[in-house]
Amino acid sequence: DYSGYPDCRRETLDAMAKALSLGLDKPVIIETPLMWLTKAQTWDLAQRIGGEPLVEAIIEESHTCYQGDRSRRHAWGYGCGACPACELRAAGYEGWRAA
Q1: Which of 25, 81, 99 is nearest to 90 (CA)?
Q2: Domain residue spans of the chain
Q3: Axis-axis angle for helices 84-98, 39-61 (nearest 10)
Q4: Contact 76, 59 (CB under 8 A)
């Protein structure tokens, strides 16, 4: 989802696709179906398309912590719990669970 970070911006992804297309000499399209969803909407989508097994897989297997901390497990997944990525993920998870 889009959080305003440079690597999440449409312009960045378009530039990456262009560079890959030039390097491979064939069109490359980077699909970003979650880009305009909030974190809470992303959790909701996961629940709707995959149920609790997909939610659990995301919690256990995905990681967004800037510190790379996988030693602490929270309801929303692993991370330090204090960096901006962890705070956004936690807020999105809590917002989804509260809805």
Answers
A1: 81
A2: 1-36, 37-99
A3: 110
A4: yes
